[in-house]
Amino acid sequence: MIRSILLFGVIMLIGRITASELNIGLPPSEKFRIENKTECKMYQKNCFVKITSSYLITFANMKPDKSKIFEYKSIKKCSINDTKLKDCSKFKNFISPNKKLYLLDIKPKLVGRALLEFEYLIDNNSIVAKKIHNIVVKSPKRFIDIFQILYISFVSVLVSVIMGILLDLDSLIQIIKMPVPVLIGFVAQYLFMPLLTYAFINIFNLKPIEALALFIYGCSPGGVGSNNWTIIFNGDIDLSAILTFVSTMSSIVMMPLWFYTLGKKIYVKADIKIPLFKLIMNLLFTIIPCLLGLILAQKFPKLKLVLMKYAKKIIGFMVISFIALNLASKFYVFKLITWQQWVTGPLIPWTGFVIGAFLAWIANRPYKQIYTISIETGLQNVSIAFLIIMLNFESPDSDYALLPLIAVATITTIPLWFLFLFKKITSKTKTDHPKFLDYADEKQKNDLDQTENFIKLVKI
């Protein structure tokens, strides 16, 4: 008799410790029910994990494995008599005379995914059961979040229109006759940059979703920002506009080509696939406005001169407003950015500057073309990558995918700003007039002043 009691006690002790592994004493599914996952949104005041059970459940412990994603607040029991209570009334359809509703109140802290592990006793029994529950915290849908998507779409269209306006058809015909610089730019943009991005992704061992976002960026065409920097560094603005136009038109073939070949390894790991039709439609969102800009430039020839006059201010405003809007709407995302993302993202365009310059130098191109091809290779159209991710990825995947791209948009041009400041400091503060002006009449001096003013206007 004593042996039987001791043996029963040992069995109960083992059952208490290993119930979760052996499923001993776990309630039948019809008597205990919990959803597969609970979705919350950032800044949501009350987010509840709902459990319906005919068992009396006493929670013994709760362990969130990622405290930075959410915080456990309390547990509330709702019976048939509690349906008039504030929180219980919202879920009265889950309550019946034979079943009670348990609400686990959690507070979202950051976007992301986490596992909620809790232990509980059933009917005050001595057997402990464990459950692991998925918590998904998504980005909020506020006015500023919707405005951000609309603004990025607007910027992408405007940038493409500007790109088409800056293109000079006469220069395009000349470049076609001498296609070497365009071929160099194309090879740098669509051969070296995707391979370079793939290499950095593997070197820094990024997460699949972040790697996929960077690969999309690495396969993107050049952006209108390169045209602005080409003007600042006295590069070949016609070549810059042509390279941007060619890479943009080619993106409808080259981006899907890379995405569904080398990129397949990345999006399979990320468990995200963008349909080919959807990707092409996203790219047409950039290509069609570019062609529209080309038509506008032909109908209104003076539009290019006006645009070049205000190009620096327009691009500057778009860049600053783009960064400011991201800071305002997704400030919490900066808490998630790691040093690998701060390094890997900008390292791709910075290395692109070097590759573009090296290829142009090897091909014995003039210095103006070297500057132009270098800038065009490094400064890719990050707004296209932003748009593809925001239109095709769901939160929180889209939030984590944007992390390295935010780093790209924020600090990519820092080396160019340093070079620009160095150029300003080392250049002469005042242009010396030729000696013949000492003997020139007033009309000749005025003609020279007007020429210099026009040059300065174009540079601005």
Brief characterization of the structure:
By secondary structure, this protein is an alpha+beta fold. It has 17 helices and 8 strands.
Low-confidence sequence ranges: 10-30, 430-441, 453-460
First and last CA, distance: 99 Å
SSE arrangement, N to C: HEEEEEHEEEHHHHHHHHHHHHHHH
Structural class: alpha+beta
How many DSSP E strands? 8
What characteristic shape results from the CA principal axes? elongated
Query: Given the structure, what is the number of helices?
Result: 17
Task: Output the keywords.
alpha+beta, disordered C terminus, 460 residues, four-stranded mixed sheet, 8 strands, 17 helices, elongated, four-stranded antiparallel sheet, 14% strand, single chain, 60% helix
Characterise this structure.
The chain has helices spanning 2-22, 86-89, 143-166, 169-177, 180-203, 208-218, 225-232, 237-259, 264-270, 276-299, 302-329, 339-362, 367-378, 382-392, 397-411, 414-426, 442-459, and strands at 32-34, 37-41, 47-53, 57-64, 70-78, 100-108, 112-122, 128-138. It is built from 17 helices and eight strands. Residues 10-30, 430-441 and 453-460 have low confidence and may be disordered. The protein is an alpha+beta fold and 460 residues long. Helix 3 packs across helix 10, helix 3 packs antiparallel against helix 11 (302-329) and helix 10 (276-299) packs across helix 14 (382-392). Strands 1-3-6-5 form a four-stranded antiparallel β-sheet, with no helix packed on it. It has a four-stranded mixed β-sheet with strand order 2-8-7-4. The N and C termini lie far apart (99 Å).
Describe the protein's topology.
Elements: H1 2-22, E1 32-34, E2 37-41, E3 47-53, E4 57-64, E5 70-78, H2 86-89, E6 100-108, E7 112-122, E8 128-138, H3 143-166, H4 169-177, H5 180-203, H6 208-218, H7 225-232, H8 237-259, H9 264-270, H10 276-299, H11 302-329, H12 339-362, H13 367-378, H14 382-392, H15 397-411, H16 414-426, H17 442-459
Parallel strand pairs: 2-8
Antiparallel strand pairs: 1-3, 3-6, 4-7, 5-6, 7-8
Helix pairs in contact: 3-10, 3-11, 3-14, 5-6, 5-8, 5-12, 5-13, 6-9, 6-14, 6-15, 7-8, 7-13, 8-10, 8-13, 10-14, 12-13, 12-15, 14-15
